[in-house]
């Protein structure tokens, strides 16, 4: 299950803005969760759920059902924007400006007079307990998919921020243990929120048009192989969200690095039009490998949705056995014959300088066009110019 995104109703400009941003309290290279003071004062979200909400006089007026935060508002440490409070059988909303203090076992309000409203969803906000706790997240520092065992909050002045995610087994056990211990944070393995990206919009209550409104900048800096690892760790809705946020070209590069069975599963998950576009943007050899792992019917569905030139090229390559040169070739594959010399092939490679990052070897074909071996670019570089490619194959490149 992945996190979900909701809409809410009140104008965020009505929140108090007289607090200092959390970033001003940190050194440029320091993250919030590494601050000793904040670690001492952090509040466990899991421990806070169900705890009393007290008015200024200390009287209990309800219980915490959830907290709202603008996770996708662009702030490194999302601002808590309100409390969903259970009053009898009702769920009421309190703006964050009504909170005086967030304690580990209660929430104290700054007034005895309450303007309780029926809870409605507000644009850009997320229900922290419902939509992030126990859901999938991506740690962009360690490049891994994690599950949030707890979320940690910190109050700085009048503002309450989401500062960290606990992913430890100890925390899961704490939440399953006696209720009297659940409120106490156990920050054994805490990941700073600044390293987190969240995914998914698969809630039945979430409008299908709701998408993440900010690009995943940290993920865009990852290499395709690293993105492939992330894709393989995400659930179905998370994969879809990540692919859409990356753009088709970068997503296609990442798909080329996925394990075959994971790639096949992904292509079957997404809509045929999207799968066809992704495969069409892959390198021809990678695209052919991806198509070979699908059924004939699935291949036909995707090919029919591709541009005609790409479709014809892939159909041609699919017609060759996978172990023949034509069956494994890319559009920039370098070819040679056993009798050609290193100097001759090197001169021909010089004409393909624009593709130098895509060529790492020369495929050597016999007179019938069959692949009999290959010579690495390194072997070409260190070998004498009059050396024959056939000799390099026979000698292992020496």
> Which class do the helix and strand fractions yield?
alpha+beta
Distance between the termini: 54 Å
What's the overall geometry?
elongated
Question: Which CATH class of the largest domain applies here?
Answer: Mainly Beta
**What is the average per-residue confidence, as pLDDT, rounded to a whole number?**
75
How many E-type strands? Answer: 18
Helical content class = 25-40%
Question: Could you walk me through the main structural features you see in this protein, from its secondary elements to its overall organization?
Answer:
The protein is elongated, with a radius of gyration of 28 Å. The protein is about 30% helix and about 20% strand. It is of the alpha+beta class and about 400 residues long. The N terminus is likely disordered. The chain has 3 domains: about 190 residues, SH3 type barrels; about 100 residues, MgtE N-terminal domain-like (MgtE N-terminal fold), CATH 1.25.60; about 60 residues, CBS-domain. Strands 2, 3, 4, 5, 6, 7, 8 and 9 form an 8-stranded mixed sheet that branches. Strands 1-12-13-14 form a 4-stranded antiparallel sheet.
């Amino acid at each position: 299950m992945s996190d979900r995104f909701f809409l809410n109703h009140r104008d965020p400009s009505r929140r108090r803005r007289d607090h200092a941003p959390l970033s001003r309290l940190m050194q440029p290279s320091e993250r919030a969760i590494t601050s000793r003071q904040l670690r001492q004062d952090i509040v466990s979200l899991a421990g806070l759920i169900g705890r009393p909400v007290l008015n200024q006089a200390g009287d209990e007026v309800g219980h915490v059902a959830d907290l709202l935060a603008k996770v996708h508002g662009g702030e490194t440490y999302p601002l808590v924007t309100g409390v969903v409070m259970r009053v009898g059988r009702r769920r009421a909303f309190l703006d964050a400006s009504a909170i005086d203090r967030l304690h580990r076992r209660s929430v104290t309000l700054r007034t005895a007079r309450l303007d309780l409203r029926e809870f409605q969803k507000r644009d850009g906000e997320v229900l922290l307990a419902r939509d992030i706790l126990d859901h999938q997240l991506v740690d962009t520092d360690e490049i891994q998919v994690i599950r949030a065992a707890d979320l940690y909050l910190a109050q700085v002045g009048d503002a309450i921020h989401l500062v960290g995610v606990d992913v430890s087994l100890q925390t899961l056990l704490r939440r399953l243990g006696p209720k009297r211990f659940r409120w106490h944070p156990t920050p054994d393995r805490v990941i700073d929120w600044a390293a987190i990206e969240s995914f998914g919009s698969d809630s039945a209550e979430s409008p299908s048009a709701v998408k993440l409104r900010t690009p995943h900048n940290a993920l865009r800096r990852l290499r395709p192989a690293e993105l492939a690892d992330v894709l393989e760790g995400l659930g179905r809705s998370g994969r879809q969200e990540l692919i859409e946020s990356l753009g088709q070209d970068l997503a296609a590069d990442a798909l080329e690095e996925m394990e075959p069975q994971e790639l096949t599963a992904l292509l079957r998950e997404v809509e045929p039009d999207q799968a066809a576009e992704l495969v069409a943007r892959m390198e021809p050899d990678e695209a052919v490998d991806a198509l070979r792992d699908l059924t004939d019917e699935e291949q036909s569905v995707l090919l029919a949705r591709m541009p005609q030139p790409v479709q014809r090229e892939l159909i041609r390559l699919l017609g060759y056995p996978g172990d023949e040169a034509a069956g494994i070739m890319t559009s920039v594959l370098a070819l040679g014959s056993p009798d050609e010399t290193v100097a001759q092939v090197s001169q021909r490679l010089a004409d393909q300088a624009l593709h130098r990052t895509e060529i790492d070897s020369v495929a050597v074909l016999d007179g019938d066009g069959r692949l009999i071996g290959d010579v690495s670019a390194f072997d070409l570089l260190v070998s004498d110019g009059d050396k024959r490619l056939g000799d390099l194959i026979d000698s292992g490149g020496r």
